Amino acid sequence: MKRLFKAALLVAVIALSANSASAQGLKDAYKKYFTIGVAVNPRNISTPEHIEIIKANFNSITAENVMKPGEMHPREGVWNFEQADAVANFCRENGIKLRGHCLVWHSQFANWMFTDENGQPVSKEVFYERLKDHIFTVVNRYKDIIYCWDVVNEAMSDTPGKDYEGSFRNSRLYQLCGDEFIAKAFEYAHEADPKALLFYNDYNAANPHKTEYIYNMVKKMQEQGVPITGIGMQGHYNIYDNPKWENFEAAIQKYSELVDNIHITELDMRVNHEAGGQLQFSREGAEITPEIKKMQEDRYAEMFEIMRKYKKVIKNVTFWNLGDRDSWLGARNYPLLWDENYQVKDVYYVVRDFKKNKKK
Q: Which CATH architecture has domain 35-357?
């Protein structure tokens, strides 16, 4: 009888262990490697089903849109804090770290900063006064919960250039200030919160010419004393060959010469041949055949294998949206680990259960 009892107890323990392992979320699976984040919208943090997924799987959150300058500060003296506060409070209540995104971006920017009350261009000195006020107000409001900021977003060009000046996006920011606006933004952010990690964030950061652009800019800025302490590599990739994994790995190695913190900030894996953060793209992907499905699973598996290899410098990986319905790419690009109905896909288990899936 005792032997039968011990055998039954052993089976129960094994079963409990198996259930516990199968119930772990992404953040648990990767706790020895890096934090796992997700970009959220207001619906995600107010829908019980979404909240359950977030709490089980993620230990870092990014506000997808509601903390961008144009959303928070649409006019001089006018602030929209309600939705940003809701994200911050959700993180506070649930003990989840918050990534700040973003303080300066040429798109969704507070464009009123460039002109006076008559619509005439202001000097860069006036612009800097306004920018500093914006950064100080936002950073101080959330400094208790935000552990890092994407300070400047997408300032480098996609086009191969011949010199340092040609490596910058010819934005309204650059036209007024040259590359000085990057330095000023980081200096203001650091002054407002000396403890926060401060990131330069960009897409196509693994494409060789853009890797050089980013590396050269950050290196120059750091040599001038600008407090850039991290590099964000937006992960807007596809299931084919963008990026080539050898370029992805080479970029990580190169950036790690400058910073100790690399974040993969905006991860999605679309099923067509497009990639990058450009705002013009097809919202229709390929038909999801078994072959396409397997290609996506393999690409995600290969990418996470590389990132685990560089766990000493890669400190966070953030998926850009929760489910396919939320994705800026559209549900038909099938880019994430949950589908448009927030049902988990097989690719989720490929990412989460890498130890089980590892070839022996």
A: Alpha-Beta Barrel (3.20)
